[in-house]
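queue> holo job accepted (iron/sulfur cluster)
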Amino acid sequence: MARPLLEVTDLRKQYQARAGMLAALHGRTRSVPAVDGVSFGLSEHETLGLVGESGCGKTTIGRIVLGVTPASSGRVVFDGHEITALRPRALRPLRKQMQMIFQDLDAALNPRMRVRDILREAITLHHRLEQTEVARRTSELLDQVNLKSAKLASFPHELSGGEKRRVGIARVLAVGARFIVADEPTSALDVSIQAQIVNLLRDLQTRLGLSYLFISHDLEVVELVSHRVAVMYLGRIVEIGPAERVARASRHPYTSILWSSLVEKRSDEVARNGAAAWGVFDFERPGQGCRFAPRCPVYEAAGRPAICTDPTSEPTLRDVGDGQSVACHFPLAR
Ligand SMILES: Nc1ncnc2c1ncn2[C@@H]1O[C@H](COP(=O)(O)OP(=O)(O)O)[C@@H](O)[C@H]1O
Ligand code: SF4
Ligand SMILES: [Mg+2]
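queue> job finished
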């Protein structure tokens, strides 16, 4: 096993959210535990896929890991440095190595700058370079992301979605990234372009030795690109393991439902509407045992065993062999 590049331990994040109009009038807020005790590791040259329905905490984890959003508690260690304990100044030299590809294609591209200037700005962000060296690096980046040099004169609005994504990838490479949080990198693209971008990210990993935290609700893409996959449900990881095993031999009831819905080609619908259709965890009354119980078919089939809703026994990740860990009192049989 390659040495760990990233180690995340018992990460938690509470956001203060207004509890509704009436509560807001009285100045009352409630705390939303968006990330609620998450631990995982990532090796060099590895892709860890992070999946789960909208709102389960994926983006929050990505932002905390990069030091963009502060954690409420827990530890993030990148290449031996504890991100969660560093002051902004000490974080700066690590920042260039850790970058985010945003879901929004336009997020990282200044609309008033031409592609040439976007790349130049990124290339010279941490290095003073001669013009000739900037030009050499620019053409190397274009080559790496398969973009024609004619596009250097374009403004972002003149580019297609796929081209914007390529410029976005070139930009994070220009800064010097070796660890990339890719947050839904294909969701804003046409299906025909998605595969090209996925192949580009895989190719860059091989050529440059990159590591990815690959966030997506598109299970097919995640299974394709990831070495390991972590499945999140309401702020917690419920299953983690080798991509093929998590997808084909799921041990957590939730993981199994996610992937079987993919087989039925309803994955998008489940990802978007699942929480509403299946009932929602009450964030204000945590500690009621397993938070998946209200939606769990195994819990129903087993006659609602008390341990599943025992407030003192919320299931934690346990090693079930073959590199797989699962947070369930009754893991599915192999
Ligand atoms: N800045 C914020 N302030 C308050 N609540 C937030 C904020 N960002 C995210 N949340 C809430 O935290 C939860 C997790 O959000 P997020 O990490 O964006 O999930 P995902 O990326 O899986 O869709 C959601 O309930 C979301 O509404
Ligand atoms: S612990 Fe119980 S309720 Fe939770 S996923 Fe497992 S079987 Fe379902
Ligand atoms: Mg998100």
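queue> Residues 231 and 255 are 7 Å apart (CA to CA).
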